[in-house]
Amino acid sequence: MIIISLSLVAVWNVVYFVWLYKGDTVYIGWGGPGEYKKFQKKFYIFVCLFDTAILLVFYSYFLCVVSNYKNALRRELTAEERDEKKAAKKKAEEEEKKAKEEAEKKK
C-alpha cells in the first residue's frame, strides 16, 4: 500500500509541476515570507523523484527481507501435528455450530 501511495504522489508531483504549474520557480515552506525556500521547477521535480525512488527501494527491500524471514521461521509440520490441528479445527467448528443452534432455539 505504501509503495502504491508513494508512486501516486510522485506521479501527481510530476503532472502538477510539468503541466499545471506555470511558474519557473517553486516555493516550498510555511509561515512567514522568510521561511519559504525557492527552487527551480526542474530541480524540485528531480528531488521529489529521487526521494521517492530511495523510499521505494528501501520499502521494497525490507518487504523482501521480512517475507524471507517469515518463511525461514516456518517449519514443516509432522503428520501427527497436522492431524491434531485438523481435529482441533473440526472440534471448534462443531462447537460453533452447536452454539449457533442453541442461540436460534432461544429466539
Structure characterization notes:
The chain is mainly α. The chain has two domains: 2-74; 80-107. The chain contains three helices and two strands. It has a two-stranded antiparallel ribbon with strand order 1-2. A hairpin with a 6-residue loop joins strand 1 and strand 2. The longest helix is centred in the middle third of the chain and has 33 residues, at 41-73. It starts with a helix and ends with a helix. 0% of the residues are buried.
Q: Please give the order of strands in the largest beta sheet.
A: 1-2
What is the straight-line distance between the termini? Answer: 44 Å
Number of domains: 2
The backbone outline, from C-alpha atoms, is elongated
Biggest sheet record:
2 strands, antiparallel
Task: Describe the oligomeric state of these chains in a short phrase.
Answer: single chain
Average pLDDT works out at: 91
What string, H for helix and E for strand, traces the elements in order?
HEEHH
